[in-house]
Each structure stands twice: as structure tokens, then as C-alpha cells.
């Protein structure tokens, strides 16, 4: 059975990790799809439906997710997931609203493929957010510029993206014509998660990589906004080996407790900051600020610094939601600010960045 599982990413380390579960008579499988508390699990030679045996107090991010390796048991109510094996990597985004826990997008991914369409101007701030989530996951980001067959100036677009994605490989390709697809296949890992905004050509890309039509496709709307074609996360075995986890198209993505991801996504600014005269430099008007100097001489854009600051504020806010002491300290700062501003009008309190 383990030979069949190897096509899904099973290896000697997973085999060793599972030994204690095997001693209990449990069977390994990988979660291929999650749908309202029911799970499609892949055992290598078949796809089965299983229930999740989750305790009432279990956090959302600890529940089985697409890409997880799990232990299965046959119980009177049917096939049940009894355990989730420790994850190697985890792609998380912020949950909607004011909930403190994050939303799991995929687990045990070694490559995070970010699709960016060339048919319209790239939103660099949005791309930087995808990159932060990718870096924080522990996987390696790979940016693909899709729809190269309809792009006017691929070279300029790729240069702009490369400047916003230090440390990540950037490839331009067309799933329609096949241009760049071989380079992409060579860059994929054992498990790849595909992220991107709606209308980025993800479904066409999945079909091309899978060698068959496994995802429905739709034309991009006339206003440039994408149509949602993927509605859930799904694991797809690729013909050349390895698996791809497709995720629903997103028009935005929130970073969740991702301080390391921000540091890697903005490694150019972090490196510049090390050369600032003052260790606590906030890169505004301080003398000897290497970051402001880079903006002045054209090596860094003001837009990128603002994006960096925005993500740092969001990470700080997420940290406060999960840390009572940090929330209390933040409340005290607001109280002092309110007291200092008495008579100058009301101060509106907001915990959001």
C-alpha cells in the first residue's frame, strides 16, 4: 500500500512517523477534499469518504485539511479519521471578521504556486500578500505569470514582479500555447498548492498540468474581475508524479500571524534596515536611514515600503487577537492617547490595522 501512497507524496519519513499509528491497526491516507465535515481521502488505489473524529474544543486549524496525512479507522458509523499526522508545512490565511483563528488553505506543501495574470496590470500589493502567506507556510514560493499569449510587454511585467518577489522564482507562461510549461513542470515540488486571484487562469493551468480537463474554466469578465470556478480545495495527482492542490480564486488574502513571512517577503527592506544608523529606525525622517536612502536613489519604491508597513500592522493586530497581554497593553496605549487628546475631539478606537 505504501508504494501506492508514494505517488501522493508518501516517503520514508512519513512511514516512520506513522509507525505508532500502524501499531494501533490504523491505515494511512491523504485528504484530497473537504466538504462540510466529510472528507475524501486517498489511499493510493482508491478514493474513500470518511468522517472526522474532532473534539468540541479543537481549533479550526487543527482539523483535517486538504493535503493532510491522516490515520483511518473503521468504526460502526463508517470510516473515521482518528488522527492528523504532524504537518511539515501549513498555508494559513486570516479568517473573515474578527475571529482569532486562521483558515487553513493546504497542508504539507513544499511549493506554493502563485498565479498572476498578464492580461491586466499586476496588483503588486496583492501579490506581496500572497508571497507573505507562501513564505510563512514553510513552502517555496513560485510565481507564474499566466496568459503570456495575450500580454503586450512580458519583459517589463516580469521585471516589476521580480522586484516585488525577492527570493522567489518568476516564470512567464501560457497554458493555452504551452509556452513555459516545461520550465514550470521542472520547478514543481512533490506537493504544490496553487494560489491566485479569481480569473488568473488557474483552472486552465491545472488542466494543462493534469493532462486532462479536471477543472471547469470560464472566461474572465469584461471588467477584468475573475469568475470563481474552483469552489473548494482539491488534491489532484499529476501524470509525471507529485500532486497539485487547487484552491478557490481569491480577490484578497489576509496574512495571519506571519511575522517570518513578512520578513522574507520584504527581505530587501529588512536587509536595508540593518544599515540604518539607528536600530529603532522607523524609516521616516531619521538621519542615516538606509531605507529612505534607497527610495531617494531609486532602488526602492515608496509603494513597497507602504506595503511592508501595512503588513506589519496586520501581523501586529493578529498577534493582539491571540495574546491577552498584548491586547491589554494596546488598550492602555489607547487610553493614554485618548486622555492626551481630550478637548481635541473624540478618538475613534480601532484594533484593526
CATH topology of the largest domain: Rossmann fold
Q: What is the straight-line distance between the termini?
A: 49 Å
> What gross morphology would you assign?
globular
What is the count of distinct domains? 3
- What string gives the helices and strands in order? HHEEEEEEEEHEHEHEHEEHHHHH
| Helix share bin | 25-40%
What does this 3D model show about the protein?
It is a single chain. The chain starts with a helix and ends in a 13-residue tail after the last helix. Mean pLDDT is 84; it is low at 220-230 and 343-352. The protein folds into 3 domains: 2-86, Beta Barrel (OB fold (Dihydrolipoamide Acetyltransferase, E2P)), CATH 2.40.50; 91-246, P-loop containing nucleotide triphosphate hydrolases (Rossmann fold, 3-Layer(aba) Sandwich), CATH 3.40.50.300; 266-340, Ribonucleotide Reductase Protein R1, domain 1. It has 11 helices and 13 strands. It has helices at residues 2-5, 12-22, 124-137, 154-164, 181-187, 202-210, 259-265, 267-273, 290-296, 302-322, 324-340, and strands at residues 27-35, 38-42, 47-52, 69-75, 78-84, 90-94, 102-107, 111-117, 140-146, 169-172, 191-196, 234-237, 243-246. The protein has a 6-stranded mixed β-sheet, sandwiched between helices. It has a 5-stranded mixed β-barrel with strand order 1-2-3-5-4. A two-stranded antiparallel sheet has the order 6-7. α3 (124-137) crosses α7 (259-265) and α7 crosses α8. Helices cover 33% and strands 22% of the residues. With 353 residues, it is of the alpha/beta class.
